[in-house]
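Reviewers of the previous submission asked for a worked example of the structure-prediction workflow described in the proposal, so we include one complete record here. The input consisted solely of the amino acid sequence. No template or homolog information was supplied to the procedure at any stage.
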Amino acid sequence: MFEAASFPAADDETLTPEQLAEKAKQQDKEVEVAAVRLLSRREHSTEELKRKLAARGYPEASIAAVLDKLGKKNWVSDERFAANYVHHHARRGQGPMRIRAELRQQGITDSQIQQKISGGEQDWNGRAAEVRRRKFGAELPRTAAERAKQARFLQYRGFNSDQIRAALKFDPDADDPEVDDRAGDLEPDKDLGPG
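From that input alone, the workflow returned the following structure tokens.
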């Protein structure tokens, strides 16, 4: 397993200021090596990287210093992470609402999320239609039950109601069978009286 510090904690009181500075410098170097190893595997958000390093037992001050240094070098970037995340998860068939919730858990700000999701790179209506087609086939649902089942599936995947309606080619005003059936039967009733 891994030890977060090279010196025992009990010796901190007996160390000289030079030794304490050397210990802190060595600890920062260990944190930086661990952070770069994580970043070499895949992109991470700053918050995600902070959580992983803290879980390994590194002190908060060292983590903050290293993340600041890596941020200045542009080795860790929340904007780049968000862009990659949106692109990857949209290709996997997830919708913007689900991606937004997951990015919030990664510590990405709402403004960064909004910028990446609505950046015009994704056609969310088209994505929803493609996800529906892959799961249920090319034929659109014929019954209300089929339509509800497919809508629930798309909602679970993270698409909003407008995107779901576009994917199902459903217009509630024009396509609702109850509205259509009653519309033809309605005639003005001349004998409507009070009661």
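The chain has eleven helices and no strands. We consider this example representative of the routine output the project will generate in years two and three.
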